[in-house]
Amino acid sequence: MKHSTVDLRSDTVTQPTAAMRAHMMNAPLGDDVFGADPSINELQEKIAVMLGFEAALFLPTGTQSNLCAILAHCERGDEYLVGQMAHTYRWEGGGAAVLGSVQPQPLNHSPDGSIALSEIEANIKPDDAHFAKTKLLCLENTIGGKVLPMDYMKAATKLALDHGLKRHLDGARLFNAAVVQAANSSNSPLAEAKRIASYFDSVSVCFSKGLGAPIGSALAGDKAFIARAHRIRKMVGGGMRQGGFLASAASYALDHHVERLADDHRLAKQLAGALAAIDCLIVEPVQSNIVFVDVKPEAKEKAAGLIPYLKAQGVLATGIYRLRFVTHLDVNEADINYAILCIERYFNL
Ligand SMILES: Cc1ncc(COP(=O)(O)O)c(C=O)c1O
Asked: Is 203 in the pocket of ligand 1 (CB under 6 A)?
């Protein structure tokens, strides 16, 4: 029997569950540009409390949320310190520079995804007319599926604070990080999410990734910061009127889809374990729901045909010589076993 499509391209590909759809259809609505959408207001309050901030703002995308955060922390001619591979530097179209005249200062990552404290410190510019004014440190957690160590976040954000910088976290997958931290402690994932958030002045979270909502992000911070971000969101067209349909999906995801991220992590590890047994592949240690696999040089020719072969078998993934597989709400154990079988079969052909 043919297996249904197994889409491992990203955790953004999920469909809302039947229960989430029912919840959305029953959401009370109003015009959010007047601040009158009860479902958006409820979500904003819920996520602010959950992360220990005064206020939060619902936005259509993580990109817009990060943009509003950077522009609310910085002014024209300021700069933010950010990792070379961070979404807020590499994958957001240069928005902060294009739309806000805020310059990124990209920094190299250590293998665990962090940025060395010495690297951060060395790049905080003195008050000198030659330099842009360093105003903000942006971190990302998880980053490339890696969970930033708690002690590192504490130290990096303290260093930034000691130099008068604001601290923003792109926590698109904050709850994945929190679930991993919780598994290594006696705390709940929500307690760990709050602990991570406590090191930052602002946090952006996405509901449309591992949490399985169709769309939506939230930015949390203090009231004055959120008021500035709200103005910027309006400017970039992010006021969504009866957006409560979408906020209610996010709210449902927070209530029902956080703890289950542990299943995604378990399946990612299962996939990684099986792929590590294939001779020509080098599998990066997996911490959350993203599996990166490098193809050894001698197998590059063979590997070039893998993604099209998998597609023909109904398994979707990305990359050529560095492959990426992401587990999520719409992937179960049978799907992962099927994907493993197809990959093994391809390399044994
Ligand atoms: C770490 C990270 N931050 C931000 C975003 C941006 O989210 P969106 O696609 O909703 O703009 C993504 C998207 O994949 C992401 O992976």
From this structure: no
Q: Is the peptide bond before 142 cis (omega within 30 degrees of 0)?
A: yes
Joined tokens for residue 311? 């597609």
Q: Which amino acid is residue 123, in one-letter code?
A: N
Q: 217 with 169: CB under 8 angstroms?
A: no
Amino acid at 84: Q
Task: List pLDDT tens digits, range 179-191.
Answer: 999 999 999 999 9
| pTM given for the model | 0.97
> Which of 142, 206, 288 to mutate to test ligand 1, by most ligand atoms within 8 A of the CB atom?
206
Q: What's the CA angle centered on 221, arms 215 and 224, to 5 degrees? A: 120
| Distance set, CA 61 to CA 29, 41, 50 (Å) | 20, 17, 20
140 Cβ closer than 6 Å to some ligand 1 atom: yes
- Nearest 10 degrees: CA dihedral of 61, 66, 68, 73? 170
Distance (Å) from CA 97 to ligand 1 centroid: 18
CA-derived radius of gyration, the chain: 21
Sign of CA dihedral 255, 205, 329, 212: positive
Over the stretch 253-299, which tens digit does the pLDDT of each residue have? 999 999 999 999 999 999 999 999 999 999 999 999 999 999 999 99
Tell which atom from ligand 1 comes closest to the C-alpha of 64: 11
Two structure tokens written together for 82: 């950010």
Q: At what angle do helices 244-256 and 38-51 cross, to 10 degrees?
A: 40
